[in-house]
Design a protein that fits this description.
alpha+beta; single chain; eight-stranded mixed sheet; 8 strands; 35% helix; globular
Amino acid sequence: MAIVDKMEQQLRPPTIGLKPYEAKVIPLTSGEDMLVREATWDEIPLLMETIEPLMKQPKDFYDIVASRIYAELLGMLRYRVRDEYVFVGAIDGEIAGIVNGRLVNEKVGMSYHTITLKRGARVGAHLFAAKMEYHLDVMDQDEVWIVAESPNGFKRWMIEYELESRPDCPHELGGVPTYVLTRELWEKHKGSKCTGIRPAFEDVIEANKILRKPAVIKV
């Protein structure tokens, strides 16, 4: 057993060290309060179970996004991804959306995916902004590498944030053209994109301590 444990330690990647992300409350257009917070390691299996049905849903490319997030979460669960984080947006305990990414090095961030389970309230847009906030304001990185796998994602990220095109910059998700959110662009757009109330209301924190899958996911 000792030999296996030693080998396992050799397989696990080194870490730069992730700083904590302070939870915040975002009032949605639906009138609901969404809590944005880090997901715990123990919650990862529930997140995987939540998105698994979407792995066969081709509408708006949910199939590829869900499949890749599933694999990325599994990599996090098995300690096979360096410095990966996952945030959830939750409303009264129900998972409304999931975002994830990782640190490439101290100054460069890698955006992975944004998946919305509650549509029509800009949940995905809020969660994407939250992870950009994490990279650039909390981790004090200089830039984030981003790709889109759907036309809607391209509109929300590349166009609305006026991202810098870097087609020769290899993103981990493959050959899809890479775009970059620089600190200059973040400072330009975060006032209108990154919202939320801190410290988060205690009743909202309490209502979202235990997560659950949505009863129905409409895509």
